[in-house]
Amino acid sequence: MKTKLKGEVLLGAAFLMATSAVGPGFLTQTTVFTQSLGASFGFVILVSVIIDVGVQLNIWRVIAVAQQRAPEIANAVLPGLGVFISILIVTGGLAFNIGNVAGAGLGLQVLTGISPELGAVVSAGAAIGIFMVKEAGKAMDRLAQLLGLLMILLILYVVFTAKPPLQEAVVKTLLPDKVEVITIITLVGGTVGGYITFAGGHRLLDAGVKGSQALPQVITSAISGIAVASFIRILLFLASLGVVAQGLVIDAANPPASVFALAAGQIGYKLFGIVMFAAAITSVVGSAYTSVSFIKFFHPAIPQHENKVIIGFILVSTLIFISVGKPVMLLILAGALNGFILPITLGIILVAAYRSSVVGNYRHPTWLTIFGVAVVLIMAWMSGHVFWSQLPRLFSG
Questions:
Q1: Which CATH superfamily is domain 3-395 in?
Q2: Rounded to the nearest 10 degrees, how much is the dihedral formed by the CA atoms of 59, 62, 64, 68?
Q3: Calculated CA dihedral for residues 137, 140, 144, 150, nearest 10 degrees
Q4: What are the pLDDT digits (tens) for 58-77?
Q5: Residue ranges of the domains in the chain?
Q6: pTM surpassing 0.70?
């Protein structure tokens, strides 16, 4: 692979992972948590970034060395395990994609005044168009890069208008007044949970970036993806902190839109529409592509007609949103499922890292293994605690 082409693929994979993570839920989470924790939310972001890097390095490395997708690796660890995690990933990906389509519709409503349902249809059409071109992979990479950069520039403008207390943000990031562990778990799950963890790794595999010799490039791409998503998170945090520090009241009905409007007036509100659309449409593409990559081994016809299956995935997500509306219950349950998926999939990858039948003579770094095991145990405990504590609320009444 030519150096220039490889560079584009690495950057594309990084932005695909980052923009898959930066969806409607990402925007809302960051705003709400900043409102509740203030400048101390910076510490939560810092911890989550460290965990994110450890998770991605473990998973992307093993995928590259094994030269197989996650479900194929899981089947090599234990026959049938790949089917199990594929069902989890696709179910969660479909549920989240309904929210992504809804978010894209909301973004277009802010920009044009059309209904969210019509906006969702238009957005779905745009996403489907990516997979109708001959070189869909390149088109997907370019879309993720362009819209990712656009989001950064627009949010950066809002940060300047919000004028956040930067010194306080730095101090509280290192010495927080309070820490809520659940917010760390939520951020980790939202950034590298479910299908998101595998978006970039599978993209590199499809593009031919694989094998032990490609590990330096794989590591660079993984860290770049986390860096992009984290930078966007930090910018949103600073914009929200600027609004909170001024004593302005954020509208609970639509927190991120409220922050943009309070910081930059009507222009800010329109910028929110662009950011929401960009965040949602890239997440629609990333979710559909990665979810389908998990079922390629189900039948030989799927990889032969991959783009058509991806288009079908987007269409189903859109039809469910239009017919049901905002699936609040589905999204809550999907969030709980996402918390379970990360420790399960990461645990499988860690076991595979020590199976010579999967990785050959490759030796996985001990520090990454220790890091990974710690994440598995913490995420499993926290997600289990949250899930069982929420069950009575979900099904009451």
A1: Amino acid/polyamine transporter I (1.20.1740.10)
A2: -100
A3: 130
A4: 999 999 999 999 999 999 99
A5: 3-395
A6: yes
